[in-house]
Amino acid sequence: MAEIHILGQIVEGREFSSEGLFCRYGIVTGDRRDEPSRWRLLGGEESGQSHAVFPDVDDVHAICQPIDVHYAVSSIQGWPKIFVQVWGQSHDGTNDLRKYNSCPGSALVVYPPTLPTSTPHTYPFVANSEGYGFVSVPMASGSYDLSIRTWRPIGSFRDEITSVLVGGHPQVTAEEIIYNDDDRFRLKTESTGEIIIHLEILHKDFERRGIVFNENVPLF
């Protein structure tokens, strides 16, 4: 089997409204039409979370979260994607903890409650979401600086007023919504910030299997 080694780091976050940030990331391979055996993890962690960071004088959050994964590959179908979830933290070190209830008629997002409710679908004590996003790993080997423009769901006018006065934002209910296009078209969203990722892509034995990438035109 051919092999690919993905090295790098989540470098920084820009243009986010929260004072403190921490970032969760995940790497996914394959899709619902793909056989799981086509991508086999040989080493490294496919998910992780950074420490909490506060901005410098230029309002840049230096996240510096390492990424290091090694795969054996039998097909280029299901090429890896990196997705991020950015969360906010107050200056005193506490997360913005709120109680959320599922929005009626939607399985995609949860909203801060605006009225007392007896619904059993509750999501207690979650941190304040600052944004979601993903990027496909470049196919050609080499060094890359990638940008992920993040977004977050928005609710009704009343939901947004509640977010301003009480705190908390609507959040997605499943990670798949972040990197799959199937359901996301139903979401109403707003842009939030930008995550910068640096990657080094190393290949082994792709040419032996008849797979040649254009080094000058990386595919995303």
Automatic annotation (TrEMBL):
Entry's Gene Ontology cellular component terms: MKS complex
Name this protein carries in UniProt: B9 domain-containing protein 2
GO biological process: cilium assembly
Compartment(s): Cytoplasm, Cytoskeleton, Cilium basal body
Keyword Thylakoid: no
Keywords: Cell projection, Cilium biogenesis/degradation, Cytoplasm, Cytoskeleton
Pfam families attached to this UniProt entry: B9-C2
Source superkingdom: Eukaryota
Keyword Lyase: no
Native organism: Palpitomonas bilix
